[in-house]
């Protein structure tokens, strides 16, 4: 009992040490300055990456729109008798970029909260896996990483599409959840629809299309899945870089504010120390 | 008088309608995008010839809606001003929709003038040797596809 009280006292003694010492302040100041340097250079790096991502995104948009067009024109609807759904989360491995990954994960989480029996998730990028596996680990059928270090290519997208098709999960309909890039300061979490062969074949408007057989539709859907994934990965990468740029800009600004405050405290403390030493010397001299 | 005016209005509006419809019918909303480059985005062209697995075919405005899978080969685009552009595609899809819009999405595409014939021939021999050394079915299929693409490349470059 006594020992516990002593320990507690010592703890409190450490906590209430009053004014920070000069040494402690200068150490904090130095570390904040270092952090600011890091965030500033991260901002520069992501600004360069963002410029490239946006240039590439402009090239890819027609592919995404073209692949989407067929689903819209043919008015394909998810089949009612097949409730199984597939959700593909487009994120990346890297953090420190605002809420891009969490907003994708949140979208999926609200859907899983409604119905966690018939929805399976494919996680692209470590971040969505890390967020979703905590509660809905058993819903994840596929996860891939090493996304975000380099700009996504069509090869990556087709490998992913291949893996999704080979997973042998029978789904009626699905969606790709990604962040659509709007401008440097804003992005929107959106979905792209994906359908299986059965739901396309069951569409009433398909009869106006000429000379189709299942094999053609199957290959067509495989390729269109790859193009849609490619498009959404590009959009996601661009939103991520732009969001990281803003996040790092804010972090540098905050670090700057902190540095100002700490410099002020540092100077005040330094003055106080000098004054105290002078008082000590003077009072010592007068006592003699 | 009033009846006549309304009739004349009816006539003009119908005349207007037909011109609009005809203008619409002759237009083809053509999009040609590849993973590496976008060639056309919502442009109007005269005719497009595409190689597909169900046979090569030409697309004119008001083509019947269909879907097709592209075969390695040359897509010829006849532009409005009479020029012909020939573009090599490795694989992809063609979608012709009800509203006369055409989308060609390719994995990779290049104008044929950019193809180096000797490099294409080299690729063909390389993929042929790949086929003979293929161990399992998957490697064999991959080599066969490589041969198909490089054969088409050689043909396009000539």
TrEMBL record, chain A:
Primary localisation category: mitochondrion
Superkingdom to which the source organism belongs: Eukaryota
Topology class, membrane: Peripheral membrane protein
Entry keyword Mitochondrion: yes
Pfam families: ATP-synt
An annotated GO cellular component: proton-transporting ATP synthase complex
Annotated PROSITE patterns: ATPASE_GAMMA
InterPro entries, A to Z: ATP_synth_F1_ATPase_gsu (IPR035968), ATP_synth_F1_gsu (IPR000131), ATP_synth_F1_gsu_CS (IPR023632)
Subcellular location, record wording: Mitochondrion inner membrane
Keywords tagged on the record: ATP synthesis, CF(1), Hydrogen ion transport, Ion transport, Membrane, Mitochondrion, Mitochondrion inner membrane, Transport
Any one GO molecular-function label of the UniProt entry: proton-transporting ATP synthase activity, rotational mechanism
Family that this chain belongs to: Belongs to the ATPase gamma chain family.
Subunit organization: F-type ATPases have 2 components, CF(1) - the catalytic core - and CF(0) - the membrane proton channel. CF(1) and CF(0) have multiple subunits.
Protein name per the record: ATP synthase subunit gamma
Organism lineage: Eukaryota, Metazoa, Ecdysozoa, Arthropoda, Hexapoda
UniProtKB/TrEMBL annotation, chain B:
Keywords: Acetylation, ATP synthesis, CF(1), Hydrogen ion transport, Ion transport, Membrane, Mitochondrion, Mitochondrion inner membrane, Transit peptide, Transport
One Pfam family in the UniProt entry: ATP-synt_DE_N
Location of the protein in the cell: Mitochondrion inner membrane
Gene Ontology MF: a single term: proton-transporting ATP synthase activity, rotational mechanism
Domain of life: Eukaryota
Family label: Belongs to the ATPase epsilon chain family.
NCBIfam families linked to this entry: ATP_synt_epsi (TIGR01216)
Complexes and interactors: Component of the ATP synthase complex composed at least of ATP5F1A/subunit alpha, ATP5F1B/subunit beta, ATP5MC1/subunit c (homooctomer), MT-ATP6/subunit a, MT-ATP8/subunit 8, ATP5ME/subunit e, ATP5MF/subunit f, ATP5MG/subunit g, ATP5MK/subunit k, ATP5MJ/subunit j, ATP5F1C/subunit gamma, ATP5F1D/subunit delta, ATP5F1E/subunit epsilon, ATP5PF/subunit F6, ATP5PB/subunit b, ATP5PD/subunit d, ATP5PO/subunit OSCP.
Function summary: Subunit delta, of the mitochondrial membrane ATP synthase complex (F(1)F(0) ATP synthase or Complex V) that produces ATP from ADP in the presence of a proton gradient across the membrane which is generated by electron transport complexes of the respiratory chain. ATP synthase complex consist of a soluble F(1) head domain - the catalytic core - and a membrane F(1) domain - the membrane proton channel. These two domains are linked by a central stalk rotating inside the F(1) region and a stationary peripheral stalk.
Protein name: ATP synthase F(1) complex subunit delta, mitochondrial
């Amino acid at each position: 009992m006594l020992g516990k009280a002593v320990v507690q006292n010592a703890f409190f003694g450490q906590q209430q040490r009053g004014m920070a010492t000069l040494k402690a302040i200068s150490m904090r100041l130095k570390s904040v300055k270092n952090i600011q340097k890091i965030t500033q250079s991260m901002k520069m790096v992501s600004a360069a990456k963002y410029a490239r991502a946006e240039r590439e995104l402009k090239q890819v948009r027609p592919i995404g729109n073209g692949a989407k067009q067929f689903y819209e024109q043919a008015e394909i609807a998810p089949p009612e008798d097949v409730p199984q759904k597939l959700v593909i989360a487009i994120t990346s491995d890297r953090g420190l970029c605002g809420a891009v990954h969490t907003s994708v994960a949140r979208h999926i989480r609200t859907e899983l909260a409604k119905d966690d029996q018939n929805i399976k998730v494919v996680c692209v990028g470590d971040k969505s896996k890390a967020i979703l596996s905590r509660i809905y680990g058993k819903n994840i059928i596929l996860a891939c990483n090493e996304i975000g270090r380099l700009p996504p290519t069509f090869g990556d997208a087709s490998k992913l599409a291949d893996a999704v098709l080979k997973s042998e999960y029978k789904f009626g309909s699905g969606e790709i959840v990604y962040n659509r890039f709007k401008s440097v300061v804003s992005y929107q979490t959106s979905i792209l629809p994906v359908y299986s062969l059965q739901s396309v074949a069951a569409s009433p408007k398909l009869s106006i299309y000429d000379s189709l057989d299942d094999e053609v539709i199957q290959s067509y859907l495989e390729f269109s899945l790859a193009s849609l994934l490619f498009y959404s990965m590009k959009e996601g990468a661009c939103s991520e870089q732009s969001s990281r740029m803003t996040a790092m800009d804010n972090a540098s600004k905050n670090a700057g504010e902190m540095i100002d405050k700490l410099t002020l405290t540092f100077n005040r403390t330094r003055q106080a120390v000098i004054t105290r030493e002078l008082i000590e010397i003077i009072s010592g001299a007068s006592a003699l | 008088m009033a009846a006549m005016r309304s009739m004349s209005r009816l006539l003009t509006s119908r005349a207007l309608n037909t011109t609009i419809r005809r203008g619409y019918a002759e237009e083809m909303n053509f999009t040609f995008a590849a993973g590496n480059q976008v060639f056309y985005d919502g442009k109007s062209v005269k005719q497009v010839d595409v190689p597909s697995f169900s046979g090569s075919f030409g697309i004119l405005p008001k083509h019947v809606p269909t879907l097709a899978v592209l075969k390695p080969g040359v897509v010829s685009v006849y532009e409005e001003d009479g020029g012909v552009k020939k573009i090599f595609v490795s694989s992809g899809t063609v979608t012709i929709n009800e509203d006369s819009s055409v989308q060609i999405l390719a994995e990779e595409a290049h104008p044929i003038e950019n193809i180096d014939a000797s490099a294409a021939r080299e690729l063909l021999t390389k993929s042929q040797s790949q086929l003979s050394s293929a161990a399992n079915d998957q490697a064999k299929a991959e080599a066969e596809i490589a041969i198909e693409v490089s054969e088409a490349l050689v043909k396009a470059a000539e």
